[in-house]
């Protein structure tokens, strides 16, 4: 049984609580109220979906520009061309001198990986874990990314946040739509990575 005074479990056969010494028989058997766990303290004003969407559009434009320069620098333009021609129905055998699928896929995979994974990952995770805690788009909209305590997130945390954006998008963008309806304006990727997006003072 539980002691009505201190709430600790005690020997049911004893008259007195072994923890606080209270007379168990004389005390009314009222349950001890246990305070519910409080939510984490407010760390700032949470950014809404509209501001975050505008910041995202600005960042995507910058990523495309950066990606174009990087693709050109690493001579991966052929990969982009191959992706376009193969999507248009042109047979891969006519795209390269070797005429094999491997010869066409190698630059294509390298270009797609660079444009859609490597550059966006380094861009978002790098900027959001930097001193500014924000990408250029977020800086423009006066937003910062923090952990749940309002501190600067680590590169590992912002990396996790970035890659789970793909999950947020794959489930019919529900992970992003959640931002408009959750208490702290968190998307699925924010919740998994333990991040917040706040308005700057």
Features:
7 helices, single chain, mainly alpha, 201 residues
Structural category is mainly alpha
Could you give the order of the helices and strands?
HHHHEHHHE
- Determine the N-to-C terminus distance: 53 Å
Helix content, binned percent = 40-55%
Counting DSSP E segments of at least 2 residues, the number of strands comes to: 2
Low-confidence stretches: 30-38
Number of helical runs?
7
- Write down the Rg: 28 Å
So what's the overall shape? elongated
Strand content: under 5%
Structure report:
By secondary structure, the protein is mostly helical. The protein is built from seven helices and two strands; from the N terminus they run ααααβαααβ. It has a two-stranded antiparallel sheet with strand order 1-2. The longest helix has 28 residues, at 101-128. It is elongated, with a radius of gyration of 28 Å.
């Amino acid at each position: 049984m539980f002691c009505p005074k201190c709430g600790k479990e005690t020997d049911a056969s004893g008259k007195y609580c072994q923890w606080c010494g209270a007379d168990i028989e004389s005390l009314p058997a009222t349950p001890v109220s246990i305070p519910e766990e409080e939510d984490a303290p407010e760390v700032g004003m949470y950014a809404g979906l509209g501001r975050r969407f505008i910041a995202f559009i600005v960042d995507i434009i910058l990523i495309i520009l950066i990606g174009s320069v990087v693709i050109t620098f690493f001579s991966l333009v052929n990969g982009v061309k191959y992706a376009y021609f193969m999507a248009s129905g042109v047979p891969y055998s006519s795209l390269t001198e070797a005429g094999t699928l491997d010869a066409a896929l190698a630059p294509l995979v390298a270009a797609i990986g660079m444009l859609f994974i490597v550059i966006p990952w380094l861009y978002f995770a790098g900027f959001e874990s930097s001193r500014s805690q924000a990408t250029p788009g977020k800086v423009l909209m006066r937003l910062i990314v923090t952990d749940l305590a309002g501190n600067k997130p680590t590169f590992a945390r912002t990396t996790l946040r970035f890659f789970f954006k793909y999950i947020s998008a794959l489930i019919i963008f529900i992970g992003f739509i959640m931002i408009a309806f959750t208490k702290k304006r968190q998307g699925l990727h924010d919740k998994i990575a333990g991040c917040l997006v706040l308005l700057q003072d």
